[in-house]
Amino acid sequence: MNMEPVRQVGGMELQAGAMAQAHKHRQIQFVEDKQEFSRFPTKTGRRSLSRSISQSSTDSYGSAASYTDSSDDETSPRDKTQLNSKGTSDFCVKNIKQAEFGRREIEIAEQDMSALISLRKRAQGEKPLAGAKIVGCTHITAQTAVLIETLVALGAQCRWTACNIYSTQNEVAAALSEIGVAVFAWKGESEDDFWWCIDKCVNMEGWQPNMILDDGGDLTHWVYKKYPNVFKKIRGIVEESVTGVHRLYQLSKAGKLCVPAMNVNDSVTKQKFDNLYCCRESILDGLKRTTDVMFGGKQVVVCGYGEVGKGCTAALKAMGSIVYVTEIDPICALQACMDGFRVVKLNEVIRQVDVIITCTGNKNVVTRDQLDRMKNGSIVCNMGHSNTEIDVASLRTPELTWERVRSQVDHVIWPDGKRVILLAEGRLLNLSCSTVPTFVLSITATTQALALIELYNAPEGRYKQDVYLLPKKMDEYVASLHLPTFDAHLTELSDEQAKYLGLNKNGPFKPNYYRY
User: Fold this and answer.
1) Which residues bind substrate (predicted)?
2) Cα dihedral sign for 166, 172, 178, 181?
3) Which residues are 469's β-sheet partners?
4) What is the architecture, at CATH level 2, of domain 277-433?
5) Is 193 annotated as contributing to ligand binding?
6) Is 77-266+458-486's fold the same as 277-433's?
7) Any known ligand binding at 438?
8) Residue 232 known to bind ligand
9) pLDDT single digits (tens) 390-442
């Protein structure tokens, strides 16, 4: 995809207490969004799963990390009347009585998110988000709950919904609702439920958001299209995902982006840590939990050698797998070769591989024709953002039989008896079938919090109606907050050394074009 360069922002003061007060926002006009969401049919089942699911981030993720399964109670949360201990009902979760269990989950997560807690303690006296009304659409897990509670501690009012129909931890959603955060989400939502929850977050009488924290772009799209007057008054958007950033770039290129936006996905602290190290650990966890596969000697093809692909291949190679890589980019392909992997076309190895893992962010990376040629017992899964990478829709035909083995694991059976194991119906494997490391999520969450603070407090004119990368200084600050966990001690430049390199002793230490 060809995209115009994103400008690097600057001038941000990162010391707590030095945040400038926000200036009045400009009135923004915009053009109606024409984006549409395609659909694919799903299997017949209970109400929450029986409707067709959008090929947006509504079905890109899931989570096996919840103690409670959505099938425990067939009654839709929308049909229940629930009150928290304070007597309020401005929320919609599976079961508010699970709040105590959710609180324990959040407390466990806090232990490995010390940097985010440190930021909370440093800045809560100044309340840099006082007056901020943040509407968020992310995964609702114990880790994101720590982020939400940090935003509240810094002065923000928050209303929250899930960016995916399977990723919500019901007990965590209950815990947040118990303390007064308006949460509208539960595991196993239908598509209609998904959009209803987003609307309930945005459309609240007497409450109007002025900041958006999004993961996937669905919330931004909804506000942009359905509530133009609200959108005009948004001070800034913070977007985490590949898909959401792509949508923002499209709007910007078309001249339709009328709100300053921060691209968190391409920040160093997201790309080099969340995408790489998180996937390096969680790919094995997801595969092992779902299939009990032994990795030694298995032939695995990883489609895509970006940061996610690098993490997946490193983990599989260390376990003794024979790993192939497919790539369209000659630079990434050369990296794979230098790291000891054979770069191939998928069709060259499709009949012999045991596992296919997609992580490209593209569509139809694995086609029906290729699935037809895979050997019996092969495993197919996705580690990219969207479920479009594997052509799952082509498998929903009368000649093929689907057999549910366990949660998020299906046998797709061909007429000749061949079985292919499909994980999470082509959705993101780690959040669908396992969990992700809390510490890595702390890095991303801290980056998101600082991006919100920067956009909300930026003086008028600092940010135009465009997509911005995070300041290099901010990335370095996020990293520095996490170093004490490892008892790491940074070397300090002498005055002579700093002058020789032409650097400020306190950073930033690398130019904007530096690739880590």
Assistant:
1) 141, 215, 240, 270, 274
2) negative
3) 8, 263
4) 3-Layer(aba) Sandwich (3.40)
5) no
6) yes
7) no
8) no
9) 999 999 999 999 999 998 899 999 999 999 999 999 988 988 788 889 999 99
